[in-house]
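Morning run. Coffee first, then this:
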Amino acid sequence: MDPTTAGGFSQEEFLEACAELQQPALAGADWQLLVETLGISIYRLLDQKTGLYEYKVFGVLEDCPPALFTEVYMDLEYRKKWDQFVKELYEKECDGKTVVYWEVKYPFPMSNRDYVYVRERRDLDAEGRRVYVVLAQSTSASSFPEKRGVIRVQTYKQSLAIESDGKKGSKVFMDYFDNPGGQIPSWLINWAAKNGVPNFLKDLVKACQAYPKKT
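And here it is:
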């Protein structure tokens, strides 16, 4: 099922993310280990068509149970309080589907980027283990016209799978690709991959520990 037209994802896409959480699918392609830090390993694969990279992230986040991690990740209002790179973020019903608008702050003198995407969460049973899967993909929606001075990201796709690490933390898999458009220095792309993702996950763990709805 194509989420850009139907507003949903196929069960197979959820199962693929769930399977990769158990067994990383890095064989058969030129995946490169980019960095290992804070219990997180990040791999990248060059997309020949765009010259950009797809990334896969594997690791364990301690002291952040999977149910809480997923709830905090899905809570857009709360993210605006802890994610310093959020300029604007909200959901809106559009053409029978829930669409997310997200503007990201970029360092001066570069233009901010914004995303319009659909997302869906499903909780799966994998041989008795609870696995939380969230999929997201860019979409087009007339209710979100492009802004002057902000570059619209036309291609964005992410999958996230989380389960218990057997203790008090979460075992995490993430696959993502986006084409931010414009001219972005290679140093910034490398910094974002090597530092931005681990820092985002570290901030998310802190956000989990401070979550006001935490029980």
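Strands lie at 32-37, 40-46, 53-61, 86-94, 97-104, 112-126, 129-138, 150-152, 155-164, 170-179. Good start to the day.
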